[in-house]
Amino acid sequence: MFKRILFAYNGQPVAEKAIPYLEHLARSDNAEIIVLHVYQPPDLYTAASGYEKLLDSWEALAQEVVADIVSHLHEGGFNARGRVEDGDPAPVILDVAHDEDVSLIVLGARGPSSVKELLIGDVSTEVLRRTHRPVLIVP
Asked: Is residue 3 over pLDDT 50?
């Protein structure tokens, strides 16, 4: 049923709660897992001379986060690979889901943390609203 699963992973405890569900579904269907980490560097400092160095450190940290979970999945016998992208998380998740032609998107949800998120939704809500693919959101 699910041949390729996109796991939107930000390294937070709420995302880690989704891992057992991800593993169960991937094992059941022998699915490939694509671990995606989307980071959003601050654009406040783009004019500063050290901004490129800041971007490099954000990228390196994001790569490390993905490498850790991909390694964990490999140890469990899963076919997994990682992707790191920068940008606004929900649109990037949707773009990668399309590019990779995934059959399921898995992500954690922490619930709204601001009035804005309460009114318009957080990343998981936006992904759910804007995709035609199945989505598993683990609270």
From this structure: yes
